[in-house]
Amino acid sequence: LNYTKSVTKSDTWTFCKDGIDRGWHDMVRTADLSLDNGWLGPDNSLCVRAQCCVRQADGININSDYNAKQETGYIGLKNHGATCYMNGLLQSLFHVGEFRKIVYSIDCDEPHGAPGKDDPAGHEGQVSKGPIGASHGVDDGEGKAPSLIQALQNVFYKLQTSYQAVDCRELMKSFGWDTMDAFTQHDVQELNRILCDRLEEQMKGGPMDGSIKRLFEGEMENYIECIDV
User: Fold this and answer.
1) In sequence order, which residues have a C-beta less than 8 Å from that of residue 32 and are 6 or more positions away?
2) How does pLDDT run along the chain (229 residues), one tens digit per residue?
3) 125-139: string of b/e by CB count within 10 Å (b at 16+)?
4) CA 154/CA 28 separation, integer angstroms
5) How far is it, in rounded angstroms, from Cα 192 to Cα 131?
6) How many Å apart are CA 112 and CA 115, to the nearest integer?
7) How many CA atoms lie within 13 A of 227 on its CB side?
8) Separation between Cα atoms, residue 77 and residue 90, nearest integer Å
9) Which of 1, 80, 10, 72 is nearest to 37 (CA)?
């Protein structure tokens, strides 16, 4: 078989709801299917290799009436500066059904004596440095900041019900972030660890105590095996 022979078709096409399929019905004429032309094998067998490539896709044309929730069933999160890492983490956690159930089950009422934004470092539950501060429903001059639990529940709820990209400013405010923090890249693994720790602290003594740890925990076993016995 002569694999050097090829037929190339080029086209410009915009995929949309009413145009999800594109192809050709006349790639090779039947008269050209011969041994001499390299299309047929010794037993008149036909061997075809097909390849499809996008030569240029610099942009996506979206109609003004396009709705991602209606088309895909999902919605995104707004980027508020350099928060793409946070958005990726929130979307990943949101799509873990059991984690979402745990978040919804947490009572968002703050316990008495919960650490505040200005509490000294080292107080239980306080994170003085890192991606999440310790804002607990305090007024920062722009209105009362919600608790972390309430803000996260709101984000998850909007991801399920909203038809527009979800705003995360309320959640960022519960972190104790200011505008500069929104434009600062943090380590997503550290953000995940601290976020889960804060959720676990909120569930202590309740029926869901330890549920996040059990959801994501794993076991590692080290052993030595003698191969000469």
Assistant:
1) 39
2) 555 667 777 777 776 767 777 777 777 788 877 777 777 777 878 777 777 777 666 566 666 777 788 878 889 999 998 899 999 999 999 999 999 999 998 887 654 334 333 333 333 333 334 566 544 444 445 556 678 889 999 999 999 999 889 999 999 988 888 888 888 888 899 999 989 998 888 888 888 888 998 898 888 999 998 988 7
3) ebbeeebbbbbbbee
4) 57
5) 9
6) 9
7) 0
8) 9
9) 1
* Tokens at 49, concatenated: 């290799």
Encoded amino acid at 58, one letter: D
SS (H, E, C) the chain: CCCCCCCCCCCCCCCECCECCCCCCCCCCHHHCCCCCCCECCCCCECCCCCCCCCCCCCCCCCCCCCHHHHHCCCCECCCCCCHHHHHHHHHHHCCHHHHHHHHHCCCCCCCCCCCCCCCCCCCCCCCCCCCCCCCCCECCCCECCCHHHHHHHHHHHHHHCCCCECCHHHHHHHCCCHHHHCCCCCHHHHHHHHHHHHHHHHCCCCCCCHHHHHHCCCCCCCCCCCCC
* Rounded distance between C-alpha atoms, residue 135 and residue 145, angstroms: 7
Task: Give the orientation angle of helix 97-105 with respect to helix 84-94, to 10 degrees.
Answer: 90
